[in-house]
Design a protein that fits this description.
The protein has 485 residues and is an alpha/beta fold. It has helices at 40-58, 62-78, 80-91, 95-112, 115-118, 154-165, 179-191, 206-214, 227-239, 262-274, 294-306, 326-341, 392-401, 415-424, 460-466, and strands at residues 6-8, 11-13, 20-24, 31-36, 122-128, 131-139, 142-146, 169-173, 199-201, 218-224, 243-247, 252-256, 284-290, 345-348, 364-367, 383-389, 404-405, 407-411, 429-432, 448-449, 452-453, 468-476. The protein folds into two domains: 6-248 and 451-473, 3-Layer(aba) Sandwich (Aldehyde Dehydrogenase, Chain A, domain 1), CATH 3.40.605; 252-432, 3-Layer(aba) Sandwich (Aldehyde Dehydrogenase, Chain A, domain 2), CATH 3.40.309.10. Strand 12 (252-256), helix 10 and strand 13 (284-290) form a beta-alpha-beta unit. Helix 6 (154-165) crosses helix 15 (460-466). The structure holds nicotinamide-adenine-dinucleotide (NAD). Residues 146-151, 173, 175-176, 205-206, 209, 224-226, 229, 232, 247-250, 281, 378, 380, 406, 445, 447, 451 line the site of nicotinamide-adenine-dinucleotide.
Length: 485
């Protein structure tokens, strides 16, 4: 059985610990490889190496740094299908979903190619007679990028291209559940001509993460994962004096008004709730019907859920793959059990017809009582809860009372309802007749409340600001000091 290695100082290096975990194909249970659980010593070598490479890379002209990104974009296109297949193999999502996530990742490489403009500062002449003031952006230093299992390509690419074009060096720590995709992305980056030591990769879990958070040479930490861990990362990295952006979990409501186009809405809600087997931080997992649409929506969702084809994401026609592993599948099954104990009425039961092999669970739809704890629990599986309100004001109060703020979506044909929703809803990503309101690469991925800890988000201008520190220069050059020409 092969065991993955860490990429440090431009070569693959065995982790010093013998501890490792199997990496499974969640559709077949096949062991794909083993991932080492690196130690603080491994992390230290990677960080030292990134620090050594920093001077050369930050002194490389931004116009040269982006040439690496242009070549990287080309290599990602040429290897697009191979990377997408790798995502499906270890993450389980369908090949189309894998292609979609990779496309979103590549778009960030494209946006980062605009660094010569994005990184510009500003300048005032004569803030006082003969005195000028300017602001320039400089790299932060060594940056740590710690990512979750559900988007093994897209999420590292929310950060990596921006950190690099700004002149930083990085240490990546992929999810131990899906480590091979980032290995592949890193190989392509090296082929694109990134100089030695600028990007490093260390496998592992908590020990490796703690070592990054505590390391004095790490200046910035980008994290995506569950809220519990995001809060921990934010707190610990801040205590160690680093700038942090930490994106957490979610519980995303999707509101269906009586004037919504029911056919379109049902299809989009099903895609949002069950796409990627519900393992998206923008999965809409709680539908809220308003007014008389309640019964017709439940009936339409019954049909949309039952007809969904579940299977190996590599097979043609499959619309939903497995959960990431059996522990996750069993956790979600357990949450459905809790829902039923707390009075939920099952409309479609995904626990029926279990698949023997792999970590599959079919789509589930439940009509929920208002007191159920599942209304505020991130299930992270193919489960849609449905509740009902009589008017829009109560819906907005309910949505705003939630602890998460990653996304809320509204389906309506009323511009006034849409505007009210946009104006009053306390979430950072909003969809109007959209089921997954994922910001494009040139917009920030704007979670609020317990879905985000920090201030500058991933992607676009926020990425550039996060990975640079501003320097303000006030200068005077008296003309009597100059030689006469
Ligand atoms: P996770 O929090 O378990 O793991 C994320 C990363 O943190 C991994 O690299 C893991 O090795 C590391 N980690 C895990 N436990 C740790 C600990 N105790 N100490 C230090 N490091 C630790 O998340 P996951 O299960 O991989 O991903 C799913 C979660 O991520 C969901 O909650 C989902 O909503 C969230 N997510 C959020 C966004 C967003 O943009 N807000 C995007 C994708 C996923």
């Amino acid at each position: 059985m092969s065991r993955l290695a860490n990429w440090i100082d431009h070569r693959w290096e065995e982790a010093s610990s013998t501890a490792s975990l199997p990496v499974l194909n969640p559709a077949t249970d096949e062991v794909l490889t083993e991932v080492p659980l690196s130690t603080a010593g491994d992390v230290d070598r990677a960080v030292q190496c990134a620090q050594k490479a920093l001077k050369g890379w930050r002194n490389t002209a931004v116009t040269e740094r982006i040439q690496v990104m242009f070549r990287y974009k080309q290599l990602l296109e040429e290897n697009f299908e191979a990377v997408a297949r790798q995502i499906t193999l270890e993450c389980g999502k369908t090949l189309d979903e894998a292609r979609g996530e990779l496309r979103r990742g590549v778009e960030n490489v494209e946006v980062a190619c605009g660094a010569p403009i994005l990184i510009q500062g500003y300048h005032n002449e004569d803030i006082a007679p003969g005195i000028d003031e300017l602001m320039i952006r400089q790299p932060v230093g060594v940056c740590a990028i710690i990512t979750p299992f559900n988007f093994p390509a897209m999420i590292p690419l929310w950060f990596l291209p921006y950190a690099l074009v700004c002149g930083n060096t990085v240490v990546l720590k992929p999810s131990e559940k899906v480590p091979q995709t980032l290995v592949k992305l890193l190989e392509l980056l090296n082929q694109a001509g990134l100089p030695a030591g600028v990007a490093n990769l260390v496998h592992g879990s908590r020990e490796a993460v703690d070592a990054l958070l505590e390391h004095p040479l790490v200046k910035a930490v980008s994290f995506v994962g569950s809220t519990q861990v995001a809060r921990y990362i934010y707190s610990k990295a801040s205590q160690h004096g680093k700038r942090v952006q930490a994106q957490g979990g979610a519980k995303n409501p999707i509101i269906v008004m009586p004037d919504a186009d029911l056919d379109m809405t049902t299809k989009i809600v099903a895609d949002s709730a069950f796409g990627c087997a519900g393992q998206r931080c923008l999965a809409s997992s709680l539908a809220i019907t308003v007014g008389e649409v309640k019964d017709s929506f439940l009936e339409a969702m019954r049909e949309a859920s039952q007809s969904r084809t579940v299977g190996n994401g590599l097979d043609d026609g499959v619309q939903m793959g497995p959960l990431i592993n059996k522990a996750s599948r069993d956790r979600v099954r357990g949450l459905i059990d809790i829902g039923v104990q707390q009075g939920a009425q099952i409309i479609v039961d995904g626990r029926d017809n279990p698949v023997a092999q792999g970590s599959f669970l079919r789509p589930t739809v439940m009509s929920m009582p208002m007191q159920s704890e599942l209304l505020t629990t991130e299930i992270f599986g193919p489960v849609l809860g449905v509740i009902h309100f009589d008017d829009m004001d109560k819906v907005i109060d309910f949505v705003n009372s939630g602890k998460y703020g990653n996304q809320a979506c509204l389906f309506t044909s009323s511009g006034a309802a849409a505007r009210k929703f946009r104006h009053e809803t306390e979430v950072g990503n909003l969809g109007i007749n959209i089921g997954v309101a994922a910001p494009m690469a040139f917009f920030p991925f704007s979670g609020w409340k317990d879905s985000f800890f920090g201030d500058l988000h991933a992607q676009g201008r926020h990425g550039i600001e996060f990975y640079t520190q501003t320097k303000v220069v006030v200068e005077r050059w008296p003309k009597e000091w100059s030689r006469k020409f």
